Amino acid sequence: MTDLHEPRRRALLPFLDLKRHGNRSHVTCFYKCGNACDSAIPNQTDNPTFADVVQTAFSRRSMLKAAGAGALLVAAGPLAPAAAHAGGPSGRSGGTQGGALTFRSVEQNTLDELVTASGYRYAVVMRWGDPVVAGAPDFDIDRQTPEAQAAQFGYNCDYIGLLPLDDKDREALLVVNHEYTNEQLMFSGVESESAPTTPQQKRIAMMAHGISVVEVRRHGNTGEWRPVRNGRRNRRITADTPMEFTGPAAGSEYLRTKADPRGRTVLGTLNNCAGGQTPWGTTLHGEENFNQYFGPATGPVADPERRLARYGISSTTAAGRRWHEVDPRFDVASEPNEVNRFGWVVEVDPYDPTSRPKKRTAMGRFKHEGANVRIAEDGRVVAYSGDDERFDYIYKFVSKKKYRPGNDKASRAHNLTLLDEGDLYVAQFTGDSPPAEITGTGTLPADREFDGTGRWIPLVKNGKSMVPGRQVAWVLTFTRLAADELGAQGPAFAPTKMDRPEDIQVNPVNGRVYAALTNNTNRGTGSNPKADEANPRTANRHGHVVEWEETAGAAGETFSWRIFLVAGDPSDPSTYFAGFDKSKVSAISCPDNVEFDPAGNLWISTDGSPGTLPGSNDGLYAVPTEGRERGLVKRFLTVPFGAECSGPLITRDARSVFVSVQHPGETDGSTVDSPTSTWPDRRRVRPFPRPSVAVAYRRDGGRVGS
Ligand code: FEO
Ligand code: CA
Ligand code: CA
Prior knowledge:
By secondary structure, this protein is mainly β.
């Protein structure tokens, strides 16, 4: 096994579980997304298919070609890569100049260890339960309390942001999402997902959700970072932290509850998956599978307009987590609107520990994987967001006001309002190659110029609803339904049903946008939508990555796109690696989060194996997007057994890669007392896994990827 010395490997042997898992574990399905795949597909629309829209595409395409492509500007977050412009939007220069990916790929493995490429090491930065807020107690799994957990690092870390505290990149704020909890791996004695939990355990789980802010400091002159205990800005945000609604839907009838008759204040954020960093020094956090926390506790409720069903919320049964037993707002029978108060993008100002997080209603409500921003040529802010559900859509928000560069008080105050007013669009991908080219199980053609054109269809524009008969607040609160209703107007308005849109990010070098589509085994089965050019694989088990270029400026309404990657084992003929020689690439399955290094290499973390890729843990992969090695996917690290890899973040000096090791040991039957992973604390008498943020760096302090 790569980079594991034999003695160390032998020491680990008692912890290794080399069993092959044929599918994602039931526990992951239960805890992570409330068994979303067992339920009916929420998108039951019959909106036009690719075949219907292909005809209209040809005429549009010639128009677009005539319009040409404008230069793109790219957002640079405080510790995000600087916005280099080596290549124009369609330029092939620049690329990975000075950023060659020369590391040797890590071999596939099912070790219970974080395995890095040779020449690298890693350090654990924060573990579930580590003290965050001043005065927090040390973690003791047998003495957990809600109060302790509310001051400690939460469970199942996901998105990672890093905001600088100085000019020299020696001190920073680490911002981390805590997506969900797995009670079987948190509490001794909880033996299955159907086992009841105590009220105390439920309250602890609520406090283990949310977000952590932790001051971190570079260790010496290395790529390692360590937490600052009791840092002044350290903060926990939980399922109970007060936050404000802002934007057009704030105060609307859909957001009012008994506890908040004004519809302006909500407690907590849930299921925060991916996120993004803004150039004005805040972080954005997607509320993803929020549906699983809500349900009627006392029998069926009415579901007008499928407002519940379209979001995967049951109108007949209580939520599996049964949080309503400790907080009635989770019972949709007693508080029908509470569920409308989740599914938003939350903006946090980590520099101000007293600031109230804001739920930005202008960005719409769906299962936001995350949100990533860029600054358009004219200064407006553009945010991309995927709706992670089988056959759901990709969205784009364009602010009305312009970004003001500079960190002075007035500019910052202005920038903190940017996400409250603007246009919301949903994506339509149109292929213009003959449908026969879509093979489903065959081989995709070699790398091509952009395959298709695309259009951003407005849902809200200039402050007005573009959905006939619907008010803006309705469109923003029931965005999925609004997008469906647009599609029902005809092919020209039909958003494209995608294979679970995940993280979307802009390449800082070439200005193109990359979206991870994680998988959709229902694609093309039964009466489900068939494979199309943007989702080219039937029963898409391994997912793919789509690449697009805004053709009328970043804030514009048109784009060109092509498939960048169709994931899987390269021996599978339906895989595609941007046309690169498949005998040289690493197998990869279920792309989830995407990130760029300053040279414009794409880094992809995965969530699927070993279920989807036998004999392989999840990991972090890197691939050039330009030049001769475009498409050469290489496995940079793998995460311990049962974990998924998420939240990758590469520092702007490219010397550190942060990853979230989410749900180590989450396999069927794995419990605190009998876990299938013991990472990272093996020396305990009774070891159990702890989801943790780790940082990988070169031993010689050099550039990551080299
Ligand atoms: Fe939480 Fe879409 O992954
Ligand atoms: Ca994710
Ligand atoms: Ca990302």
